[in-house]
Write a structure and sequence with these properties.
By secondary structure, this protein is mainly α. The protein has twelve helices and two strands; from the N terminus they run ααααααααββαααα. The chain has a two-stranded antiparallel sheet with strand order 1-2. Strand 1 and strand 2 form a beta hairpin. Helix 7 packs antiparallel against helix 8, helix 7 packs parallel to helix 10 and helix 10 packs antiparallel against helix 11. The protein is elongated, with a radius of gyration of 19 Å. It starts with a helix and ends in a 16-residue tail after the last helix.
């Protein structure tokens, strides 16, 4: 490790000041230890140290993550999948309080658990059983949808948050099943649509998503920890 970075680490360990953390993070970007995207993502999630680093690096740090993700998301494919997982996790408490048919009761939580597993295996490669589980969940989802949209017999009479939960589930499963040269673009589009469907769940749902992003993105983006973006079993009664 660069001696200058070690000195910045020591200083930040003593002061815990955002400006000192910002100087450390900026130095790590310049040394190739962090991507500038990580600084931008954490800064947009409200992390004070990342915001200080963004100023030093002249990186934009004023995006509304929720709305930017639903429209013109400027971040990487992995970041998109993590944010989409956060969206699904933010919806799960409301889903658990919903009277849902047995056919779909466990689908959103099973999908969240699968996405978390796939993201954990991002560096090491696919884990045994993930693809089989993806096929199983995809078959359940295909019985409930038409062209990726929830069919009327399933959507009529449901709360906005319940519909948003299933739409987020379908979009994530569809993104993970994409293959071929166009797969990354399809994932980008599906995740944007996923976030859009979450926002349609109403202000309370959008605020739950915003809190989830602010709570979990900075630690992952800056390499302090890797919680993925929550625990698929969080909030389960």
């Amino acid at each position: 490790m660069d001696a200058g970075i070690r000195e910045l680490e020591r200083r930040w360990a003593i002061t815990r000041a955002p400006d000192d953390e910002g100087r450390l993070l900026a130095a790590r970007v310049r040394a190739g230890e962090l991507r500038a995207e990580s600084i931008q993502l954490a800064a947009c999630a409200g992390h004070a140290g990342a915001a200080a680093a963004a100023e030093v690096l002249e990186v934009q740090a004023e995006l509304d993550l929720v709305h930017a993700a639903a429209e013109a998301w400027p971040f990487s494919l992995e970041a998109r999948l993590r944010v989409a997982l956060a969206a699904l996790l933010a919806l799960l408490p409301a889903w658990d309080a919903t009277e849902s048919p047995a056919e779909v009761r466990s689908l959103p939580r099973d999908a969240a658990r699968l996405v978390a597993s796939i993201l954990r295996a991002h560096e090491a490669g696919p884990r045994e059983g993930d693809q089989e589980e993806l096929r199983r969940l995809g078959e359940i989802a295909s019985d409930l949808t038409n062209g990726g949209q929830l069919t009327p017999e399933w959507s009529d009479g449901w709360s906005a948050s319940g519909v948003a939960t299933l739409q987020a589930t379908f979009f994530l499963l569809g993104a993970l099943q994409a293959e071929g040269p166009a797969s990354e673009q399809l994932v980008q589009e599906d995740v944007g649509a996923c976030l859009g469907s979450v926002l349609e769940g109403g202000p309370a749902v959008g605020e739950a998503l915003r809190r989830k992003l602010l709570e979990t993105i900075p630690g992952w983006a800056l390499g302090y920890d890797d919680p993925l973006i929550g625990d698929p079993d969080c909030g389960r009664g």
